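Standup notes
- DV: blocked on the single-chain target, sequence here:
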Amino acid sequence: MELAGFLGSAMLWVKAAHIIFVIFLMAGLFMLPRFFVYHHQCAVGSDEDAKWIDRERRLLRIILDPSLIIVWILGLALAFNGAYWSEAWFLAKFLIVIGLSGYHGWIAGYVRKLAKGQRPLSEKALRMLNEVPGVAAAVIVILVVVRPF
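- DV (later): unblocked, structure below
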């Protein structure tokens, strides 16, 4: 198989790395809102509260933030390499990825709110928001594999 584009023979390695870091990102996007649910159950200012604040910050800084950056860099390299910008399936995927990036920003902001002792959402709302990454991942996989349009 001849590999075209500026990535050449590195394209498959870039694609593999992209998928690996997407897995890391999605794991964090599933975990952090679940952490929020558990965090809501402890008293503000308690030792347990401090432990959840530390766990949430670590997950965000060690897994989520670096994964998001790497996913974007590798994903853009693949998009330019394959010249997908005029394909409808890719544009739909790209919009969902932008939405997931916004979701990442929202959960990063919620980490800061919890650290300040704020609890603006109910546990039920947080459980519902925990479904966002799963739905987005399912749609993205369908768009990339099936390319329905």
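- Follow-up: The mean pLDDT is 96.
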